[in-house]
Specification:
The chain is an alpha+beta fold. It contains five helices and nine strands. A five-stranded mixed β-sheet has the order 2-1-9-5-6. A four-stranded antiparallel β-sheet has the order 3-4-7-8. Bound molecules: the ligand Nc1nc2c(c(=O)[nH]1)N[C@H]1C(S)=C(S)[C@@H](COP(=O)(O)O)O[C@H]1N2 and molybdenum atom (MO).
Amino acid sequence: MVKRINSACLKSACVIAIYVGALGTAGAQTAAPMAGMDAAKAPAPASTSLAVTVDGKTTTFSVTDLKAMPQKNVTAHNEHTKAMESYSGVALGDVLAKAGFAVSTATHRTMLRSYLKAEGTDRYWVLYSVTEVEGSEHEGEVIVAISMDGRGLGADGEIKLVSTEDKKPQRWVRNLTAIEMKSAE
Ligand SMILES: Nc1nc2c(c(=O)[nH]1)N[C@H]1C(S)=C(S)[C@@H](COP(=O)(O)O)O[C@H]1N2
Ligand SMILES: [Mo]
């Protein structure tokens, strides 16, 4: 008896699984073509400000606000353009400090156990660990760039996240619009 019900259920479950599988593939192709890979190149809407959330409190930086902060220049190899690119902007650690998170003996452990979700206007997002964006802790630089090679960022918008240590530009977020700090604890 139990066996018979099981085999009937299995059959219909199988049909549903095939149907859902086909839908899933079609959906993935229209909604998010190969997220994280190179296929999606639809231009993202221009970002004009960056909202940084720390401990549930959001601080919004305009491009003018970012220009008024200490500027940092970095040079990074872009594996896609096969060229060295020079960016300037604000160290992400400085942006975080202004938004409420600064490294100290009191916050050190929180830093070690927290991460950042960085998102563009097109909803493309990536993670960084907080430790790797702090200049006091990590060799590589992560900056909120507002210019490249002395000019604007062009099609990449007005605000772009750039890191110097990644071998590929996949965590460089064009049209950066939001950064959220989260604890992994
Ligand atoms: N906003 C946004 N930033 C993004 C992406 C994206 O889809 N949207 N793609 C990423 C990926 S996967 C790569 S490899 C790099 C470089 O893309 P590019 O060569 O088209 O500039 O941008 C990254 N930044
Ligand atoms: Mo990519």
